[in-house]
Amino acid sequence: MLDSISYTHTPGGQMLLIGEGDQVQNQVKYELLGVVAQEAAGVFEVKWKGPFVDLGSQVLLPVKGAKGISLKMQIEKVDALITPVGSWSAVCMGPKQREFDLKNIQANCDQCHQDFQLEFIAFSGDDQSDALSAMNLQGWGANMDKQVCPECHSSALG
Ligand SMILES: [Zn+2]
């Protein structure tokens, strides 16, 4: 599941393409027409208007209500749609829909004592461990006993 999460904001109604070196390419616009989760676990049908996307590419899709989380999916198959002109339908591998639950936590840095609002996706049934994984992926140094914000964490490393 963590493979399917990106701590990047994707604007609503858009799809973003991840290019070389995991850089998000936002100069090209892909207008999202629809996302349908198919019955088979983790298979999504994604429709967009804009340029073709190569097989094997990774794309980001907006998460409803999220400020800084996107879903990351891999394109497995692409077909052109007849209408509207210039639109595509792709089969993508992504997270299992039922595993998906967006949550917010307030985190306090043990070093500078600032409060932070953080988002994470709860999926394992253990919210605390999901929140800690999310924090670490966003640059925190976090475990059950101690949570250090990205700024303090990076100055401690340097
Ligand atoms: Zn701090």
Describe what this molecule looks like in 3D.
With 158 residues, the protein is mostly beta strands. The chain folds into two domains: 2-97, no CATH class; 101-157, no CATH class. 12% of the residues lie in helices and 44% in strands. The protein is built from two helices and eleven strands, in the order E-E-E-E-E-E-E-E-E-H-E-E-H. The strands form three sheets. The chain has a six-stranded antiparallel beta barrel with strand order 2-3-4-7-6-5. The protein has a two-stranded antiparallel sheet with strand order 8-9. A two-stranded antiparallel ribbon has the order 10-11. A hairpin with a 4-residue loop joins strand 10 (141-142) and strand 11. The protein is elongated and about 55 Å long. 25% of the residues are buried. The mean pLDDT is 91. The structure holds zinc ion. Zinc ion (ZN) binds at residues 109, 111-112, 114, 148-149, 151-152.
